Amino acid sequence: MANREIQPGSKFPANATVKEDNPEQTFHITKLTGRNVFVGVPGAFTGACSAQIPGYISTYEQFKEKGINNVYVVAVNDVFVLKAWKTQMAPDGTKVRFIADDKAELTLALGMLFDATPLLGGPRSKRYVVVTDGDKIISVAVEPVPGEVTVTAADKVLPLL
Amino acid sequence: MANREIQPGSKFPANATVKEDNPEQTFHITKLTGRNVFVGVPGAFTGACSAQIPGYISTYEQFKEKGINNVYVVAVNDVFVLKAWKTQMAPDGTKVRFIADDKAELTLALGMLFDATPLLGGPRSKRYVVVTDGDKIISVAVEPVPGEVTVTAADKVLPLL
Predict the structure, then answer these.
(1) Please, which pLDDT band fits residue A91 given cuts at 50, 70 and 90?
(2) Angle at A132 between CA A126 and CA A136, to 5 degrees
(3) Which residues on chain B are in Cβ contact (under 8 Å) with A80?
(4) What pLDDT does A121 receive?
(5) B19 in a structural domain
(6) Out of A25, A138, B6, B77, which residue is the most buried by the measure of CB atoms under 10 Å away?
(7) How many domains does chain B have?
(8) Which residues of chain B register pLDDT less than 50?
(9) Which helix (H) or strand (E) element contains residue B23?
C-alpha cells in the first residue's frame, strides 16, 4: 500500500473517482483551472482533523483573496460520514468542499495512502496539502506524523500562496 | 468476500476484535451471559440506519424487560465515526452500545460482510439482528435488501424475544 507521494510538477490524477454530497454520483476532479488547494485528512470526526478544518473554513475568504478557486477537504470516508462531519464543522454552511474518496482512488493516486489500521481500521489518507495550478501540482506538504497538524494548518499554508 | 451467514446453534465468534468509544483499545466480545441482541448496520449516518437505530434506543427498556442484557449496534465504521453517530442518535446518552468493527473482523466472522462499494466505497455489514444466549446464537434475521428496514426493526424484533 505504501506508495510514493506525488511531487510538484506532476499532473493532478484525473482518473480517480470521488463523491461529494451525493452517494449515488461519482465524478472525476478534472478541468481544474487556476489554483486550487487540496487538504487531505486521515479521518472525519477524529480529533486532529476536527481541530484542523475549522481553520480552513474560517479563512476561506483569505484563500479566495489569494486567488484560490476552491479549497477541497479530501478524506477516505464515505459520503454520508463526510456530509455529517461537514455539517458539524460548518453548521451554517461553507464553500469549502468536502470530498469523499470512499474507494481511496484519489488518495492512492496522490501517493498519500497509509495504513491507519491501528487507529482507524484500514488505509486512510496522510495529512497533506497539495496546491495545483491548472492540472499541475505546484506544491506538496505532508505531515510527518498524520495525527499532528503543523505544516498543513491553514495559517501555515496561507502565507505560502 | 461473500461468506455464509452464521446460523442459530453456532457459537458467537470470540476471536474478533472490536472497539467501543476508545480508538486505542480493542477487545473481544466474550463472556456473553444471558441473552444479548446484536444489530448490524451498513453505515453510520446513512439514512436507513439513522432511521432504524432510534427504535432501539427508545425501546431499550422494553428489551431489558424481556431479559436482554445488552443491545449492541455493530457497524464497519471507525470508532470516531461511531461515537459521533451515537451522539447524534442519542444526544442525552443511551445504554445501547455502539461497537466499531473497524477491521470488519466480527462482521466477517458472522458471515455478514457484503460489498457495499457502490454506495459506501468498500465492504460493510449487512443489516441483521442476531440474538445470543450465553455464547450461542439463537436467532438470526437478515434484511434481504441492506438499505431497507423490515425484519430488523426494533418493533419487529421485540415481540419475538
Answers:
(1) very high
(2) 110
(3) 43-47, 120
(4) 97
(5) no
(6) B77
(7) 1
(8) 1-2
(9) none
Assign residue B123 the CATH number of its domain. 3.40.30.10
Place of cell 419487529: B156
B138: in domain = yes
Interface test with A, best of B120, B124, B125 (most A CBs within 10 A): B120
Residues of B in contact with A78 (CB under 8 A): 43, 119-121
Q: Which residues face A73 on adjacent strands?
A: A39, A98
Cβ-based contacts of A88 with chain B (< 8 Å): 84
pLDDT averaged over every residue in chain A:
95
**pLDDT tens digits for range A116-130:** 999 999 999 999 999
* The predicted structure's pLDDT at residue A52: 95
B118 noted as active-site residue: no
Could you tell me the residue range of the domain that residue B49 belongs to? Answer: 33-160
Q: Which amino acid is at B1?
A: M
Fill in the DSSP letter of residue A121: S
Looking at this predicted complex, what is its ipTM?
Answer: 0.94
